[in-house]
Amino acid sequence: MAGKKTLYSLFLPYLLIIPFACHANDLLNDTVRNVDEDTAKTASLKFHRIVITGNCPFGVIMASDLAYQHVVGVGPWAFLHSNMKILRDMKPDIDRITTDFINKDYVVNMESLLSLQPDIIYYYGKGQNDNLERARVPTINLDAGGNTRSDPVQTQDYWENKFSQTLGLPHSHKFAEAWKAALAEAQPYVEKIKEQHIRALYLEQSDGRQLRVSGAETYGDTYLKMAGMENVAGNLAVKGDAGRYINVSMEQIIQWDPDIIFVVFGSAEDILNNKNPGQDWHNVKAFKNKMIFTTPTGLHNWGGLSAETPLLPLYMINKFRPDYISDAKMKALTRLHYKKVFNYAIPDALLDDEFRQH
C-alpha cells in the first residue's frame, strides 16, 4: 500500500524519547497501569455470554477481568497450544470455558454453539465465519483487514479496541503500550544485529511430516525484522492469505543455510537430535552451532500472536546474543509484562517452565 508506514516509523517518536539504557530492574519499579478499580466496579457489559471462535484474541480479552468472566466458549487451539499450568494459575476457573462447540475439522457445531446461549460471537476473518449469523446474535469480525495480517501491533490494538467498543469496557491500551515498551527495549540491539545480516528461518511447523515456514508479509516475517534479522524465506512467491505459510523441503532449508531457526509448532530438541524421519539437519549452519530454539509457551505459544508476543523479538535477541539480553533480564521483562497487562505475579517455577526448551 502506497504510503504505508513501517512498524518502526510508527514508534519512532516514542523511541527517540526513551533513554538508551532501559533496564528491567528499573521497569519493575514502575506503577502497574490497571483500569481504575472504581471504574471497573461500576462498568457493566452490554453482553454477558461471550464466544470467540478463534484462538489468539482470547489472550487479549483475558487482560480484562470483567470481560473474561463472561467468556463461555473459545476455539480449541486457545488451549491446545497453551501452557495450561500457567493458565490455571492465572485464571483458576479457566476449565469452565468450553471448546466443544467446534468439531475436530474446525467447523462450528451450531447445535453445541446454541447450547452455550451466546449473546455475542467474535470470529477472525471470513474463514472462521461459518454462517454464524444462524445463531441470531451479533457477530463481530476481528480481522482489521488490509495489511494488518502481517502487523501484530495494529492487530492486537484493534482487538483490544474492538472488545472495548462492543462490550462497553473502559478503554485501555495495554497491548499498544506493551509493544512500544518491547520495541524500545530491543532497539539498541536491533541496529547491531542488522549490521551482521543474520539469516533466520521462522519454522511454523516441524512435526516430522511437513516443514512449513513463514514467507513474506506474515507475523513471523515481522517478528524476525523486529529483532533485526533477515527472513531466508522472505522471497518465496506466495498466493493468498493461507499461502503465506509455505511447505518446503529439507533440501530448500539446506540451500538457505540459516544462521538461526525459531520453531513454533514443533520441537527444537527433536531437530537438534535429528529425530524427525526424512529430515537430516547436519548440513545446516544453525544445527551445527546449536542455534535452533522453540518459541516459549505461556498463555499461548508466543510464536503465533499471543498475549506474550510483544516479548518475542526480545526473546529472539536473547537467544542469538545473550550478552545483549540475558536470560535473567528476559525473565524479568516477562514477569513485568504479566504484571502490567494482567496484574498477575507468575511463580518462579512456572516462569522457568515457560522458557524450557523442548
TrEMBL record:
<keyword id="KW-0732">Signal</keyword>
<dbReference type="Pfam" id="PF01497">
    <property type="entry name" value="Peripla_BP_2"/>
</dbReference>
<protein>
    <submittedName>
        <fullName>ABC transporter substrate-binding protein</fullName>
    </submittedName>
</protein>
<dbReference type="InterPro" id="IPR050902">
    <property type="entry name" value="ABC_Transporter_SBP"/>
</dbReference>
<feature type="domain" description="Fe/B12 periplasmic-binding">
    <location>
        <begin position="49"/>
        <end position="328"/>
    </location>
</feature>
<dbReference type="InterPro" id="IPR002491">
    <property type="entry name" value="ABC_transptr_periplasmic_BD"/>
</dbReference>
<feature type="signal peptide">
    <location>
        <begin position="1"/>
        <end position="24"/>
    </location>
</feature>
